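Saturday, quiet lab. Running sequence design on the structure tokens for the scaffold JK sent over.
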């Protein structure tokens, strides 16, 4: 499990370490790690053309020292300074001593092999202006490695302003920053590599965490010899309509393959479900109160008419865990008291537009927005996006880093809902069930996309393979 930290937490840990180490040691560690990473990206070291974008702070110092190391390996390294009068003195001195030279975008004759972005670090504001923006634009499109955080990206929110650097890779020092894993920062950071520089950051102090495959494997329910279909969890699925029967197929199929011991189905697609999944118990005319389950999935493709609203009210009135998705979220937005007054666990899984329908403001600080809604409603909220955010009412937050943009396809969320429902029925607490479900769903999406653009049925078909891959 990885912790994700605020800027103030990282700065406090840096100060503590700097006081315990000889002067310049921490910057040396960061610079050496950055140089080693960049050297591995070069097609060749001797004669490779490298451009440094150098700001006035410690991030610029890291970049100059890294550039000096690359120059010592035989690379032709040129530094473009945002403010020549305020570059890091020791870093600039070492850079010149090792053969690096100062340059300017007006003299650039050919695209560099690699650019190191060291304009602004974790203290930078969204966006770049003036000479900083000019330098970044001059090498836009070249292979770029960002030092710690892409310049122009807010390290605490992921907001990326105008002219923010769009890196291919980011080497971040000592800790994952929030702005690298949420919001626009995900796209601007590219592939993120975390390097250890000795910071003492206790995982317990990270209110935001990232589950890794070993964590998910440990949390996934595993049957033993004493289990039966009931002890493994019975999940009820309320989904589908005459107009959208496929949503019922996807959500129910995901619950079947997600590990539940039994799946019960209520909805308008009963005949289709029976033909596709003969193991599912179909309740054609029953009401939710008459069906024995340990968790409910409600919403995918069920419609938003009065009959659908009645089903939402009945399910929300139970004392069982419920995951609310799709149409049920639209209906819930009309009667938020149905979730606010619940004492049983509730998971809401909106995309951006559904989030706003829940009378919630979605700001550039996506993580903060999700936490506020979770606290107000007293429910776990999973916000879909390029980085799925899962927040508990008490502020505990997980960010999911698996997945692919190809998951932005009709029906993908239905697969996620059924999977989370099976995990709830198996006994996982709502926040972990949502985080584990998001991780596995993301892996399934990656597997499904390996052969080209996947459909949601492809994602469902990859679910068992994803579970096996995560479990090792």
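Result came back. Writing it out in full:
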């Amino acid at each position: 499990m990885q912790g994700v930290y605020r800027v103030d937490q990282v700065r406090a840990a840096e100060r503590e370490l700097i006081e315990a180490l000889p002067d310049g040691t921490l910057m040396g560690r960061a610079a050496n790690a950055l140089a080693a990473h960049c050297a591995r990206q070069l097609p060749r070291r001797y004669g490779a053309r490298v451009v440094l974008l150098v700001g006035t702070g410690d991030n610029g110092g890291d970049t100059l020292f890294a550039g000096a190391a690359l120059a010592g390996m035989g690379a032709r390294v040129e530094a473009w300074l945002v403010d020549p009068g305020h570059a890091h003195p020791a870093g600039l001195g070492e850079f010149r001593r090792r053969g690096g030279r100062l340059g300017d975008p007006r003299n650039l004759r050919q695209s560099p092999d690699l650019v190191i972005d060291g304009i602004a670090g974790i203290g930078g504001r969204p966006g770049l202006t003036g000479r900083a923006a000019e330098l970044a634009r001059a090498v836009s499109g070249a292979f770029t490695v960002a030092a710690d955080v892409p310049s122009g990206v807010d390290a605490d929110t992921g907001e990326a302003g105008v002219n923010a650097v769009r890196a291919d890779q980011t080497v971040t020092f000592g800790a994952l920053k929030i702005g690298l894993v949420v919001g626009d920062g995900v796209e601007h950071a590219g592939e993120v590599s975390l390097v250890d520089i000795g910071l003492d950051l206790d995982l317990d102090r990270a209110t935001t965490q990232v589950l890794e495959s070993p964590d998910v494997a440990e949390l996934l329910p595993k049957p033993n010899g004493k289990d039966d279909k009931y002890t493994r969890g019975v999940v009820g699925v309320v989904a589908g309509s005459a107009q959208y029967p496929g949503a019922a197929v996807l959500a129910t199929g995901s619950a079947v393959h997600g590990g539940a011991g039994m799946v019960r189905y209520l909805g308008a697609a009963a005949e289709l479900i029976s033909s596709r999944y003969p193991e599912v118990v179909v309740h054609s005319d029953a009401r939710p109160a008459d069906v024995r389950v340990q968790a409910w999935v409600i919403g995918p493709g069920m419609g938003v008419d009065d009959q659908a609203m009645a089903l939402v009210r009945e399910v929300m009135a139970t004392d069982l865990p419920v995951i609310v998705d799709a149409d049920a979220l639209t209906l819930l937005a009309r009667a938020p008291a149905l979730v606010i007054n619940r004492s049983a666990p509730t998971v809401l899984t909106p995309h951006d537009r559904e989030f706003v329908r829940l009378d919630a403001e979605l700001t550039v600080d996506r993580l903060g927005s999700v936490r506020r809604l979770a606290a107000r409603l007293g429910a776990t909220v999973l916000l879909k996006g390029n980085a799925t955010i899962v927040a508990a009412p008490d502020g505990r937050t997980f960010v999911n880093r698996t997945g692919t943009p190809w998951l932005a396809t009709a029906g993908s969320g239905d697969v996620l809902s059924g999977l989370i429902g099976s995990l709830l029925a198996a006994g996982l607490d709502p926040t972990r069930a949502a985080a584990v479900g998001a991780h596995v769903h993301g892996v399934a999406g990656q597997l499904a996309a390996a052969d080209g653009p996947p459909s949601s049925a492809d994602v469902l078909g990859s679910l068992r393979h994803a579970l096996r891959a995560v479990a090792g």
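Notes for JK: The chain has two domains: 2-206, 213-471. The mean pLDDT is 96. Ask whether to fix the surface positions before the next round.
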